[in-house]
Amino acid sequence: MTRLPLLRTALVSLLLFGLLAAAAAQPPLFYAVISDTQKGDNDPFDDFRWAVEQVNELQPQFVLFPGDLTNDGSINQYEHWMAVRQDLRVPLYACPGNHEGPPGPGEYDARFVRFLGHPNYYTQRLGGWVLVAVDGVYFRDDKLQHEGHMSVEQLQWLRGKLATLPPGQPLLVMCHFPLLPSSNQVDNAADLLTCFDGHYLAYTLTGHWHRNAHARDEQGRLHLVTSSLSFSFAAPPEGIGYRLLSTVGQDLYTAWVGRTVEEPLSLVGETAGAGPLTVPAPAGAAALALRMEYQGGPLRVRLVGERGTEWAGVFPAARERSQALVPLRGRWAERLGKESRLRLSVEPLEAVRVSRLALYTSPLAWEHYRLPSPPSAR
Fold first, then answer.
1. Is there a domain that residue 4 lies in?
2. Distances 145 to 70, 139, 172, 360, 362 between C-alpha atoms, Å
3. What are phi and psi for residue 20, nearest 5 degrees?
4. CB neighbours of 93 closer than 8 A, spacing ≥ 6?
5. Which of 30, 36, 56, 117 could disulfide-link to 68, CB 3.0 to 4.6 Å?
6. Are 243 and 353 members of one domain?
7. 285 lies in which domain range?
8. Is residue 375 part of a domain?
9. How far apart are CA 38 and CA 228, in angstroms?
10. Which of left, alpha, beta for 64 (phi over 0: left; psi -120 to 50: alpha)?
11. Cβ pair 44, 337 in contact under 8 A
């Protein structure tokens, strides 16, 4: 064999090894985050209903709700909130906020459990990830505190739960109070985060601030704060709304859906199964988003235009049926917007079953973050 074929074989093997290594990351998730709907007695929670109707159209895997469902935890407010919640057609997982607390330390947690149907702190498996939902609501001398605190009992529970999980298990934490390094919103946040030493905590999701924010800690973990669906302290045009969030391997994509947005994702074309899918290219440089529902993998997805513009990405393996949404922003939106037709296709690297393949345009300002590597990859 000559040197050229040998070199070509080596390059192909190296490329395939790189693709499979990238695809060995945590499975994808696509979900919504709704927070701080807090309203008073007899309020119809119309803004919450708007979000529920949009989520029902989008059909993500689930909704996370980091607290302050109500304004002061009254049964009346819970009942009105639940009247909207019951119309949601995907699972919802919540944790308590300080506005669930005013009934008093002996009642707030029982009331939360009664209406939500799960404990005020718990773990939940979500498509290959484990959600750790914690309760930071804190009473001192029977008086509700505005900031958070983790009880000794809850920290002991958390250490016990983590001891049963492998170090590489992808984890995300949901808490009402922000866990950004400089926020001091949970007075013993360091004790909480230290519990995850030696485990793969990729990011945290919180609310409370009524504005969006993010930061990283010294370990490179991402901390995201989601703004409110009741009122906002942020400068315009953020306003009230909810968050869409997608993780694909170590890539996290997220966008704020403001209250004025009528259609966060506009369908260009879809096919049941692996496709391929050929569609007219959207006019201009509209942001595109790929969406897949699949199980198995890993697999490579290619989006090719008639003029030769091509985007390709590797999607990680998913033991359970999962969803992946990847926004194509910036130069990709500009390049693909110059094409007349686009062809979307799937190339399995291992056995995979694709149930849906779709292409959208999106008016949202998608942000991109890299998640830290699992402990075994560092």
1. no
2. 16, 6, 25, 44, 40
3. -70, -35
4. 62, 63, 64, 65, 118, 124, 126, 131, 133, 174
5. 36
6. no
7. 265-362
8. no
9. 9
10. beta
11. no
H or E element, residue 91: none
Provide the H-helix boundaries in 117-187. Answer: 152-163
Please say whether the beta carbons of 124 and 117 come within 8 A.
no
Domain shared by 49 and 191, yes or no: yes
Asked if the structure places residue 184 within a domain, the reply is yes
Same domain, 230 and 294: no
Is the overall model pTM greater than 0.85, yes or no? yes
Phi, psi dihedrals of residue 363, rounded to the nearest 5° = -85, 0
On whether residue 376 sits in a domain, the answer given is no
Residue 345's CATH number: 2.60.120.260
Q: What are the pLDDT digits (tens) for 305-360?
A: 999 999 999 999 999 999 999 999 888 888 887 889 999 999 999 999 999 999 99
Q: 196 and 273 share a domain?
A: no
> Which amino acid is it at 231?
F
> What pLDDT score does 13 carry?
35
Is 41 in the same domain as 147? Answer: yes
Per-residue pLDDT tens digits for 134-181: 999 999 999 999 999 999 999 999 999 999 999 999 999 999 999 999
Round to whole Å and give the CA distance between 265 and 165. Answer: 36
Find all residues with CB under 8 Å of 157, minimum gap 6, and list them.
121
Look up the CATH number of the domain holding residue 242: 3.60.21.10
The tens digit of pLDDT for each residue in 251-283 reads: 999 999 999 999 999 999 999 999 899 999 887
